[in-house]
DNA sequence: TAATTTATGTCACCGCATGACAGATGACAA
DNA sequence: TTGTCATCTGTCATGCGGTGACATAAATTA
């Protein structure tokens, strides 16, 4: 890897660190791009060459974790039911996060804390989630053998997204807490849902695109 | 009602109409506050005296409908289970919308269409939803006899929120379609969930606040 | 009509975000 | 090492969103 590339990731990480630091101490809105740039000794214009917006830098780590989740999901064997694959991917994501070096894990937790206490960022995170939702629905539909326009894959994804939010948003206290919370939620789900609920049952189609 | 008040609601509605019109024809981001204000013959500064942001005017109608839902929910008898009360409130909300005068219903549908095709607004709508979520969880906890910090009321609300999103977001084509979609989703839910799933079962507590 | 309240317009200002251009710096071949 | 090229960066200018301050116009009340 050349010097140029190394410098780039270095600047990028520095910007993230500076941003998180300032956001957490002064508050998200109270922090300006100029302050972040100044702390990294970079022009404000350069900030926007690394991140498309103020929100972007705050959500870059959560966005990464979502990408990890999606990658895990895509890698699950077809033998698993949609819901089983989704649950396993969630567990795998937490595991992956835990295996990273401590520095990066700390960054992630900082970001999680920040998002948790900033409504605007919570909304942004939801937006990320929704952008991925289509991909998720498509994959679930494939596993079910139904159409992505069908109500059933959307149903499964919606249910799971709700569960994911509970444990994801409840875990700025550490990845262990988050993992435990996930277990609790999945236990609750097992108790509430009928076996095979996520498989393509008889009718209930009523396609109709959104 | 005095002239002053009448003028205010008039201006407000004019701003909403102008905004929706421009948003739908030019696109949300491509439309400026100045354009909206100009169309109503009002200074841009005045726009912000009626709406706190560009997003606010676009989401004012969806926000209203959420308020209606919450009001309906608060009015449901305690004899209903949490999930039953939530479902009934959703139906009632659609009914209330349908009973309004056609002009206002048209505005609502316009807003729904707009939100549907604008990711930023979709996210904003989710933010509104999440702001109300606490209230919802508290009410469900009361009905269950559990603590709002408990996982179970959160679980019920999350599940229902997912279902609500499916039918809500699928209905820019009219309130009738939206009602039918709701029926389909609830049917699917009845088939997937065990009877009494939304009641406070044995343990599964593991409180832990977010 | 006079006094008070309140809505509106004007002006100034800040922060976010983007395009354009010039200069600095690393990459690479001779 | 040197020269060329690609790319990163800083500076400048601009537009839009959003807010505070103040004066003016309009409605309310007496």
TrEMBL record, chains A, B:
InterPro entries in alphabetical order: DNA-bd_HTH_TetR-type_CS, Homeodomain-like_sf, HTH-type_TetR-like_transc_reg, HTH_TetR, MftR_C
SUPFAM superfamilies noted in UniProt: Homeodomain-like
UniProt keyword annotations, A-Z: DNA-binding, Transcription, Transcription regulation
A molecular-function term among this protein's GO annotations: transcription cis-regulatory region binding
Domain HTH tetR-type: 9-69
Recorded superkingdom: Bacteria
DNA-binding region: 32-51
Protein's UniProt name: HTH tetR-type domain-containing protein
Protein's organism: Planotetraspora phitsanulokensis
Source organism phylogeny: Bacteria, Bacillati, Actinomycetota, Actinomycetes, Streptosporangiales
